[in-house]
Amino acid sequence: MFPIRDSIPRVHTPYAVYTILALNILAFLYQQSLNGRELFELLHVYGVVPARYAFPDWALQAGYPAYGQFAFITHQFLHGGWMHLIVNMWSLWIFGDNIEDVMGPVRFTAFYLTCGLAAMLAHLFFNAEATIPIVGASGAIAGVMGAYFLLYPHSRVTTLVPIVIIPLFFDLPAVLYLGIWFGMQVLSGIGSMAAGGSGASIAWWAHAGGFIAGIVMLPFFRRRGHCYYCHTPEGTPPHRSVIAPPRHPGDD
């Protein structure tokens, strides 16, 4: 499934989303300028290698820097390929602006990075021995999708579902689209574990963990009175005027 657009209008210019998009694109262009050895080192130092944290003595012997906590942030701005980047950035574009409307740019940025951190902790819990570096904004964006799931379940998401070579489009309720998406991450994570895939190249549990983190942390980052198009609306969009009901004769 691939989201094409959603039905919730944007209220404010999403400056944080624009900034995150730009940083990810610039980081990927920098990756493209590196040779094979340089890219390998970049991904292993600035991506998250679970075994580096589960087995610090091994990590030092393998040549990893002693202090690697910054990788829990930097990995969110690196990607494994053009398609990885495009899918992530498009998903952020679809769902991120409406969440930034509710939080504002500063809170949204903090929320986004925190969800990415929580997502990676979930991945480490299930894949502590993995030596493959994990990169990508998927976990952070999954947190944005979790918040969207709570705030805009009534939204419609135009969805591309390719059947072999036939592209099919469906107009799905957001609660259904995101519910199916989350279920697929959990089932894929379970399947990967059953197959002994601690070195899986797709961080299924990071996706699921980020989604749950977005749901759990939403109340701490949202601004009350700014969810104009939520399932339970709050406030009035600034670009819309409120028309007062007609006054009856004799009203003061």
Automatic annotation (TrEMBL):
Compartmental location: Membrane
GO biological process: proteolysis
Residues annotated as transmembrane: 12-30, 77-96, 108-126, 132-152, 159-182, 202-221
Positions of the Peptidase S54 rhomboid domain: 71-222
Any one GO CC term of the record: membrane
Classification via InterPro entries: Peptidase_S54_rhomboid_dom, Rhomboid-like_sf, Rhomboid_protease_S54
Principal cellular location given in the protein's record: membrane
Keywords from the UniProt entry: Hydrolase, Membrane, Protease, Transmembrane, Transmembrane helix
GO molecular function, a single term: serine-type endopeptidase activity
Membrane topology label: Multi-pass membrane protein
Protein name, entry field: Rhomboid family intramembrane serine protease
